């Protein structure tokens, strides 16, 4: 029974992450109907029970509207506000996926990331792994630095509304973070070991800070910045139980996009330089290595 629950938990997170990403990147735009639960179960090779829990989780996060007897409808996606026209070749509303994809089309890819967990980053890196293995792109170097909160830090979120659920929620948070960082290690180390990318560097450090925003510094010249919004909602545990909690929504948050240009006094250049300096200062002076 324990093994089955563990496997179901991994399947639950995998399907949830993928559907979140599809809604965030516009694959399922706002107003679209998701595939039926039967179709989702067949596509992902999971049970209907797992799909039902995923739909419940996405409804709790306000991604979808789910009414009995009808297919779930998307009511939210991720928005990126940008004043630059060079961000993507697409003329659709800007999303994170094409920005990460464009970064990986360069010979050298550098990503500095500050986040609460590495869950959504793991999804995006695995998408680029698929493109590399398919021969669509061929970066020569990937360098990823990631700042996460210290594991010993008492975070204000996610936090259980009822004290008796606190330890289960802490375990859930740590499991998600460790699973995602392990996946990142496996994916990037696989690219290096198989010589699909000649140079791969991944370093993760922990800082005694509670992230109030998510930050991506992309190839040293672009920044994505988004504030975490605190909400009270139900979180679905891997056991299938629900826990009321204060949490933040990362993937669904609006991100602002800033690009460094040739003008040292432009708003974009100043913002990128400021965030890059902030990141380096925390990395060098506050953060510690693997815990």
From TrEMBL:
Record's keyword annotation contains Transcription: yes
Keywords: DNA-binding, Transcription, Transcription regulation
Family annotation (CDD domains): WHTH_GntR (cd07377)
Superkingdom as given in the UniProt entry: Bacteria
Pfam family for this entry, one: GntR
Domain HTH gntR-type as annotated: residue spans: 9-78
Protein name (record): Winged helix-turn-helix domain-containing protein
Organism annotation: Streptomyces koelreuteriae
């Amino acid at each position: 029974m324990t093994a089955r629950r563990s496997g179901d938990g991994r399947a639950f997170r995998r399907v949830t992450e993928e559907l979140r990403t599809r809604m965030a990147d516009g694959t399922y735009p706002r107003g679209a109907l998701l595939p039926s639960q039967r179709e989702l179960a067949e596509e992902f090779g999971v049970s209907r029970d797992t799909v039902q829990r995923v739909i419940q989780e996405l409804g709790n996060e306000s991604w979808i509207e789910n009414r009995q007897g009808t297919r779930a409808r998307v009511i939210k996606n991720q928005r990126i506000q940008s004043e630059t026209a060079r961000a993507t070749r697409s003329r659709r509303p800007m999303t994170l996926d094409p920005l990460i994809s464009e970064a990986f089309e360069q010979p050298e890819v550098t990503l500095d990331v500050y986040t609460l967990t590495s869950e959504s980053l793991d999804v995006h890196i695995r998408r680029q792994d698929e493109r590399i293995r398919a021969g669509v792109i061929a970066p020569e170097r990937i360098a990823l630095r990631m700042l996460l909160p210290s594991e010993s830090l008492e975070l204000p979120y996610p936090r259980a509304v009822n004290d008796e659920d606190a330890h289960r929620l802490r375990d859930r948070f740590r499991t998600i973070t460790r699973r995602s960082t392990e996946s990142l290690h496996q994916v990037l180390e696989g690219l290096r070991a198989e010589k699909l990318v000649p140079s791969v560097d991944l370093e993760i450090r922990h800082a005694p800070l509670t992230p109030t925003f998510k930050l991506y510094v992309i190839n040293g010249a672009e920044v994505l910045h988004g504030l975490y919004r605190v909400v009270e909602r139900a979180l679905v545990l891997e056991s299938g139980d629900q826990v009321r909690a204060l949490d933040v929504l990362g993937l669904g948050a609006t991100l602002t996009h800033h690009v460094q240009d040739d003008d040292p006094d432009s708003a974009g250049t100043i913002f990128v330089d400021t965030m890059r300096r902030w990141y380096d200062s925390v990395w060098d002076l506050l953060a510690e290595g693997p815990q």
